[in-house]
Amino acid sequence: MKVNFTTAAELLAICKEEIISPGEAMLRREEGLTGASRAEIRDRLSRAEMTNAVQNERYDAILGKLEELSRKHDGLTRKLEELEAKPGRRWESLAEKAVWAVYAAVIAFLLGGMGL
C-alpha cells in the first residue's frame, strides 16, 4: 500500500487508520517514492537503449557508405592514372615512329647513293 504524508499529524492519522507504526508508515512511504524513481529510471534506461540502438544503426550505415565511397575513390584514382598515362604513351609511340622514319630515310638515301 502506498503511504503519502508531509506532516507529523498526517503520519499519526495514517498510523491510526492503518493500525501500523510510524516506522512502518515511513518505510512504506519510502518504498512508494523509490518505486516511482525505479520506474522512471527504467523508462529512461529503456529510452537510452533505444536511442543507442538507433545511433548504432546510423553508425553502421555511415561506415557502409564510407567503405563504398572509398572503393569508388580507389577505382576513380586508377582510371585517372590510366588516362594520365595515355597521352604519354601516345607521344612515346609517335617518337618511336619518327625515329623509324628517320632511319628509313637514311637507309633510302644510302641505297639511292649506291644506285640501288
What does this structure look like?
With 116 residues, the chain is mainly α. It has one domain. 89% of the residues lie in helices and 0% in strands. The longest helix has 92 residues. The mean pLDDT is 84.
Taken from the alpha-carbon principal axes, the silhouette is rod-shaped
Strand content: under 5%
> What is the CA-atom radius of gyration, in angstroms?
45 Å
What is the residue-averaged pLDDT? 84
Total domain count: 1
Q: What would you call the quaternary organization?
A: single chain
Biggest pleated sheet: none
Low-confidence segments, ≥5 residues, pLDDT <50?
Answer: none
Précis, in short:
This protein is 89% helix and 0% strand.
Secondary-structure blueprint of this entry?
Elements: H1 8-18, H2 22-113
Annotation keywords:
single chain
